[in-house]
Design a protein that fits this description.
Strand 1 (46-51) and strand 2 (54-58) form a beta hairpin. This protein starts with 15 loop residues before the first helix and ends with a helix. The protein has one domain. It contains two helices and two strands; from the N terminus they run αββα. A two-stranded antiparallel sheet has the order 1-2. The model has no long low-confidence stretch (mean pLDDT 89). The protein is an alpha+beta fold. The longest helix has 16 residues, at 16-31.
Amino acid sequence: MFIPGNHDWRKGKEGGYKALKRQEEYIQKALNKKVFLPSDGCSGPSTIELSDKLVLIFIDTEWWLHQ
């Protein structure tokens, strides 16, 4: 799994969303699967159920800071 952080958003600078989308597209294409969460530059949450008692939750707080 790849989880975006502040550096992926260009440290809050202009063009951060576009940079994040380019990175997500590159990773998805290179690995040929959906491993970049939350996707589409959204804050999430995105979840993956590992078992009936365990769920991973992905949240990108940088999304709120970049707005």
